[in-house]
Amino acid sequence: MKHEIAAQHRRLDALFGAARGALSAREKQDACEALEALAAALVLHFDQEDQLYYPAIAGLRRQHEPSVRAFEAGHVRFLGQLEQLSRQAEEGALAEVAAGFEALAADFAAHEAAEEALLHEIETEIAAAG
After folding, report:
1. Residues 27-56: pLDDT tens digits?
2. CATH architecture classification, 2-129
């Protein structure tokens, strides 16, 4: 599971990079499309984590349930922030969007790292118990 989620995170990182590039170029249409593509990918990724991976973790490793719930709350927050940035981009406020996007990207990178650290910890627990 850890490797699959890490691979998905790298694909999302590429979409964050594409959105960053479009925002830097100050091309409204490209920026809006890049933000839309990122949002669609995040929805799929979060659905998979929230519906498939995290219920299993919370059920089998109860001690990690608070972390799982925090990750799920982060997913909702990220999508809300990205939706707001997309609306601002549609209005043409690309400089503001770029600044907000950088904050979102940094927060998401920390979120990814925390998820991957938890999965590594769970793998270590399983190996030690095995």
Report:
1. 999 999 999 999 999 999 999 999 998 999
2. Up-down Bundle (1.20)
